[in-house]
Amino acid sequence: QVAAASGHTVVLVDQSEEILKKSTKGIEESLKRVTKKKFADKPEAGAEFIEKTLKNLTTSTDAVAVVHSTDLVIEAIVENMEVKNELFKRLDKFAPEYVRTIFASNTSSLQITQLANSTTRQDRFGGLHFFNPVPMMKLVEVIKTPMTSQKTFESLVDFSKAVGKSPVSCKDTPGFIVNRLLVPYMMEAVRLFERGDASKEDIDVAMKLGAGYPMGPFELLDYVGLDTSKYIIDGWHSLEPNNPLFAPSPLLNKLVEEKKLGKKTGEGFYKYK
Question: Which residues bind CoA (predicted)?
Answer without folding.
Answer: 30, 37, 108
